[in-house]
Amino acid sequence: MKLSLGIVGLPNVGKSTLFKILTAQDIHIANYPFATIDPNVGVVEVPDERLQKMAVLSKSKKIVPAVVEFYDIAGLVKGASEGQGLGNQFLSHIRETQAIVLVLRVFEDPNVIHVEGAPDALRDLEIINTELMLKDLDIVEKRLKKLEAESRTGDKAAQKDLETMRSLSADLKAGKLALSYRNEPIVKDLQLLTAKKQLYLLNGPEEAVSNELKKRIAELGGDHLSTDLSMPEADAIEKLVRKAYAILDLISFFTTGEDETRAWTVQNGDKAPQAAGTIHTDFEKSFIRAEVVGTDKLLEAGGWTAAKQKGWIRLEGKEYVVKDGDVMVIRHG
Prior knowledge:
This protein is of the alpha/beta class. The chain has eleven helices and twelve strands. The longest helix has 31 residues, at 121-151.
């Protein structure tokens, strides 16, 4: 599974700065709105010290970490859905991402222009989500018209989808995110922006973050991380990636050997055949069993053979639920 995150926010709030810190890419950062027209796309390794330790243990020739793709797009402004600024057409660049990082400016600096005149993170949050909802509403309304025609033919699936779309349309018009619809098949197909999990990055000192802002983020079902991008903490990126894993309920399992030690990302709750399928799609269908040991036990034993001699290697079948940190050898037909 590939983890991908879209970065959104108003102009001049620190989006491109965040992207540069994340990827160490030399991208265009400017003190005026709309400096980013085409999306910046970067791949970031997921920090995991367990990977390094196992590679040393296995004398692996290479290490392959899990990765996160970040998509940085142009700044949104109030009225983008009506063509203000650069409009909202570039939101399509993040439609396929799994979650959205909303960057909000909480720092005060008269030398850094704010498109709304002065920083107000609560106001900015509502502007961004309103524009995302309006973009989603446009897509939902178009699908509604098609479903209305299809449902008249007696198509029961279309009738069910029509009910879902009508309810969702009403909620979006009422200013509600589509998050509660995220598991509906038709909503997954539409890849709606407000059906994605949200992680708010609050750019500025922790003391500048109000309780009111934290409360509003919680009400929206999001999570937040505070960091001053002008002086980012050494582990700021690791915290951001870990927060992303947490809100999407993702975990890592590992394979290790002389050729390579590799991290794989799966959904928490996935069973062994699904995990095998992330290694190769054919492995899920032909899965027989898995040899499994926890990373800590493997490291404690000092190697796979020693762990097996201690009886720490388990044979697990198709119903085994993978745990974070499992080291696995997949047996397949």
